[in-house]
Design brief:
Largest sheet: 8 strands, mixed
CATH class: Alpha Beta
Shape: globular
Structural class: alpha/beta
Strand content: 25-35%
CATH topology: Dihydrofolate Reductase, subunit A
């Protein structure tokens, strides 16, 4: 069965964005390009919410075609364009980015079906509301959290309104010279009865 992997940038106090949606506290880090390439090499499907989808669709297709874009970034952009994208949104009328399909709601049976399909893993970038919903359903296999050495005090909490405790096990970590720490957690209580 394919795994669902979450990759999130978070503050030390667990926020994915500040109180006004600001993300100026994020530093890409010394190994960010290498790390992002690992994620898209391990996965062949992206699971995205509306906000992340609109951000990605507004940037990556153009970067994939722009000859002035760094070759490594252009290759990464093309990889994102080639990947299957499953977008969960009640408000988007359509999805235009190539290889994208739209789901109107999180249906646990649909997500399990997606996990059971052949292929590589499924990656979630951002999309905190989807992460919270799938955490409650026990459908996420691994959380890859890039923790930045800043405390925001308030903002958009990654796990702010989950309905059940998520027991996680640290399986790997990496400390970067900047003080950014990448933590890899496995969800211990996967696939509860729905």
């Amino acid at each position: 069965m394919r795994k669902i992997l979450v990759t999130e940038w978070v503050s030390l106090d667990g926020f994915t964005a500040g109180a006004n949606g600001e993300m100026d506290w994020i530093t890409a880090g010394e190994d960010n390009g290498e790390y992002q390439n690992e994620v898209v090499t391990q996965a062949d499907t992206l699971l995205l919410g509306r906000t992340t989808y609109e951000s990605f669709a507004g940037a990556w297709p153009q970067r994939a075609k722009d000859p002035n874009t760094d070759p490594g970034e252009r290759a990464f952009a093309q990889r994102l364009c080639d990947m299957r994208k499953v977008v969960i949104s009640q408000s988007l009328p359509t999805v235009e980015w190539e290889n994208s399909t739209l789901l109107r709601e999180i249906d646990p049976a649909e997500i399990l079906k997606l996990k059971q399909e052949p292929g590589k893993d499924i990656a979630i970038y951002g999309s905190a509301s989807i992460v919270r919903a799938l955490t409650d359903l026990g459908l996420i296999d691994e959380y890859q959290l890039t923790v930045h050495p800043v405390a925001l005090g308030s903002g958009k909490a990654l796990f702010g309104d989950i309905q059940r405790r998520a027991n996680l096990k640290l399986i790997k970590n990496k400390v970067l010279p900047s003080g950014v720490v990448r933590l890899y957690y496995e969800y211990v209580d996967k696939y509860p009865t729905m």
